[in-house]
Write the structure tokens for this entry.
Amino acid sequence: MVTAGGNRRPFRGWRPGIRRVLPRIPGEVTAVIAELKTRGFQAFLVGGALRDLLLGRPPGDWDVATDALPAQVEEAFPGRLLVHTGKRFGTIRVLAGEIPVDVTTFRREGAYTDGRRPDWVEFRGSVVDDLSRRDFTVNAMALDPLAQELVDPFRGRRDLRRRVIRTVGDPQARFREDALRMLRFYRFQAVLDFRGEAGTERAIARVAAEEPSLIAKVSPERIREELNKLLTGVAPGKGLRGLVRTGLLPMILPEFAPVVKEPGLMAHLIATVEAVRPELHLRWAAILHDLGKPATRIQDGTGVHYFGHEQAGEKLAAALLERLRFSRAFTERVLVLVRRHMFPCDPMMTDTALRRLAAKVGREALFDLLELRRADIVASGRQYHRAWRTLYEFASRIQALLQEEKVLTMADLAVDGHDIMDVLGLAPGPEVGRVLQELFYWVTEDPARNTRERLLGYLKEKKKNPPEDEG
Ligand code: ATP
Ligand code: MG
């Protein structure tokens, strides 16, 4: 039996609850724990997996904590070791059947003088030492599934029941150790739909205001990963509103500094995130789509306007996504939505205009744009019913159009650059691209024109009657 101090037994496992959890631990994972215990070591399931099991959620990754040293862990699982990158921090990844399990030696840590990593790590100590360096009470429990013992020195079980996120130990000290935890505090609220403990939030507001340099030290990649999880959580608004309240949002994303000064705009962006389907690129597009509004705002006799805010917003969004080191492909996927989010949604639009819009943004982005517009309408609440019907009719027309013909891109043209060079006697160069574009526009007026015969005919006609400025 492990105790937090002295020989009190304040956290004896609540067996009925644990029994419900046990069958949901894969046998392969239990076998890893059993192997270590057979060799005389302690071994526990810890971290997010245990938290998720207790909540009845499917766990993400599996973590085991043990008093076996890294070399002893390696010895216990010959031929089943995966990567060794974590070894310096005492983590060995073991393949349990198909399931990767991270086995980490109990560790004690020194102070965090740089606000990022402990000055020293010692592979010694007890499971309680190990749990006490973890961030939140609900993440700081350990379960020995064979002894059916739950180690819960910080009352994580109670906080799970009350649905509250609270730091292990003094919140100010823990946030000063590692500023990323401030973001994790909101990430877990968004993902689990928990509330944040009030004292913990006060500590964040204080640390953020007193030592803004701490959060500036967190790497962009770690910020990105936390924000991704927060945005795709079930309650992103909980997380985002907290980041705004404490002043953290403009500290991690300076592009939001003018936005948080306009509570109505910020609330609209958050509402759009909550309304849009929980896919990463859509959630990012939702939070970023009106980023350009504060800079483009003008007021005249007819009211307030934001001319060109989608272009201004795209620039800001591009800088932000690049700084967080998102891939080019992902960035472009988000930017096209920001850039085009004001697309005219007019059910009376001609087929030609519709085809050109579809060709410009691509089939997939077209449906994303419709989804973003739907969320935007839900989030603004103005003229709800009319806007809704218009969107619905527009979406039906696009559906119908796409059903009867596939959206053309230039690659779908029945002729290619070589044909153009042959017929017109052109050398490779930008002129070939211009002619392709011209053919493409001609075809969007009537897709039946997209046959080799008709396109070659068009080109031959063009050769006979060159425009005057070319002749
Ligand atoms: P997820 O389901 O997103 O993986 P998780 O709880 O497993 O959630 P991880 O980031 O994978 O979160 O971290 C695993 C565990 O390591 C956490 O549950 C927590 O106990 C501990 N931990 C992670 N990051 C920190 C940190 N910055 N400070 C203290 N403890 C941490
Ligand atoms: Mg995890």
Summary: The radius of gyration is 29 Å. Residues 352 and 446 are 8 Å apart (CA to CA).
